[in-house]
Amino acid sequence: MKRIGRMLGYVLLCLRLLVGALWLFGPYEDATLTPQSVTVNPDLDAHFASVEGAFDDITPGVEKRVVWAGDPGMQTEWAILYVHGFSATSEEIRPVPDRLAEELGAKRGNSSADARLGARA
């Protein structure tokens, strides 16, 4: 039994050393951690259409969009921004974001939509 414990200890030590070496000497990705200024067309529907018009591989029905609570462009007190995972789409958990926004009387944006959806701060 002592022998098994000693072997397990050596294996765990080697594993720790390997993870430490990978962390210390492994590749690093350059990252810009400062916020960047972005100019957004006040007409968000037109802005999303123009930005995404540059891509021909967007699945129909999952484009960036704003679901307005009331008239298009009208400010609301709340804005819900639904950001899905890398391989997901905005349709994955629908209608949860829609119902939440409806309950709050908020507008809702999809995906990596700009967080400034006209909500009052």
Automatic annotation (TrEMBL):
The chain crosses the membrane at residues 7-26. Keywords: Membrane, Transmembrane, Transmembrane helix. This is Alpha/beta hydrolase. The lineage of its organism: Bacteria, Pseudomonadati, Pseudomonadota, Alphaproteobacteria, Rhodobacterales.
